[in-house]
TrEMBL record:
Recorded superkingdom: Bacteria
GO terms of molecular function: sulfur carrier activity
Protein name in UniProt: Sulfur relay protein DsrC
Main location: cytoplasm
One GO CC term on file: cytoplasm
NCBIfam families: dsrC_tusE_dsvC
Source taxonomy: Bacteria, Bacillati, Actinomycetota, Actinomycetes, Micrococcales
Organism: Actinotalea ferrariae CF5-4
UniProt keyword annotations, A-Z: Cytoplasm
Localisation per UniProt entry: Cytoplasm
Biological process (GO), any one: tRNA wobble position uridine thiolation
KW Calcium (keyword) present: no
Family statement drawn from the similarity comment of this UniProt entry: Belongs to the DsrC/TusE family.
Catalytic machinery residues: C103
């Protein structure tokens, strides 16, 4: 796996820049990743990110937008408002998780 330097530290990423080791993530890195894709994190963003990380820890895979809606309680419309255009990919990227299955 490729290694890159983000926010002054080395992290393992895949070819698309998604972290491959979620344990290398922390909220400071999340802020840096969000800023890199033009997102200024609010409390609502953090609620979604924390849900994704907790869900990943129990499920072993990154939640899709459908799961974020049905299990997390965040309507799809809200996901698109918080993470415009490709919310599943952007949420996973900022949360330091692998790209969800089914994302192109």
């Amino acid at each position: 796996m490729p290694v890159t330097t983000i926010d002054g530290r080395e992290v393992h990423v895949d070819a698309e820049g998604f972290l491959t080791d979620p344990s290398e993530w922390d909220e400071g890195l999340g802020k840096t990743l969000a800023a890199a894709i033009g997102i200024d994190l609010s409390d609502e963003h953090w609620k979604v990110i924390r849900f994704l990380r907790e869900d990943f820890a129990t499920q072993g895979e990154t939640a899709t937008t459908r799961r974020v809606q049905t299990v997390g309680g965040f309507p799809t419309k809200q996901q698109f408002e918080l993470f415009p255009k490709k919310p599943a990919k952007k949420m996973a990227y900022v949360a330091g998780l692998p790209k969800p299955r089914g994302c192109v």
